[in-house]
# Entry
Amino acid sequence: MAAHLTEKENYMRTLSGGTPEYVPTMLAFQRGIGIPGLRVFPEPGVLEFSDMFGVPMIVEPNSGPIPKPGEFILEDIRKWRDIIKRPKVLDEINWEMSSKEALDNRDPEWIKIGGAGVGNGYFMMLTYFMGFNNALIAIMEEPEEVKELLNFILELNLELGRKFIEYFKPDVFHMGDDIAHERGTFVSEAVFLDIFEPMWRAQTKIYKDEGILAEHHNCGAFQSFCDHIVNMGFNAWNPAQPTYNDLPAVKRKYGNKLTICGGIESNGFVSWPETSEEEVRAEVNRVMDELAPGGGFAFGGFIMGGPDNEDAKQRNVWINEEYEKNKYKYYS
# Structure
């Protein structure tokens, strides 16, 4: 089948709520844009570093940076003002040069997806500063202090976001804040609405006010909070994984208002050594048949594995081949 839309046009049409010509993939045509000095990931080969707030970080094999266990910088939330300061790097950004470096000679088919901020989201930043145990205790015992700290982070993110919009002109605002694990959310809905929802909403608003599409990242059991991201104006959720989320129910409820980006559990059935090639391919077909009709779906399927994991590489080939074989069959 000959497509009339470019891959970028097709993806953007899907996120905008329209019917695509073919099932887009969430993996191939998103290209993140960032600002030197604000990157979460260090240079290749760097295994230990400190983030802009002074949090000691380590790089785990086959994963991203995480706070160094046992070396959190904030123990008592009431003392955050003495420890968490405005990072100096924020006053050293050359926005014109940074945007030129990021955008010059850029393939026009790349989707400019990103958002300027000082970390990985509000819940995650709290855990970076304090660790999960102390962060959750602080949320319960000192919610007003938590709000004060996170509002400080929010103001930095709004300052950066406005500059980012002006200089980088993103196609899609990307925001992640992994507030869910595999079996549920880390906080109750009431706590989320009291502390975190206002932060997410305020940061998203400056992008939505400029007509920029928005995509939210949460890789756990996040379904129960989907109402809230839709109300904030998010157009997509990634990576929507099926093990602890009822993705067909999400699609029935929101239709094309919330594009489901994902559908394959990256460490689930298709990754198991005993799952055969035929079963992997059948699972890709099942997911696409279930979620693709009518639009509102961008396929996302891959197996986690290091560069030397030949089994993961082979399974990713099967998954991608099956996606490519079937992506045209759902829309006339």
Q: What stands out?
A: The radius of gyration is 20 Å. Residues 42-101+117-169 form one domain.
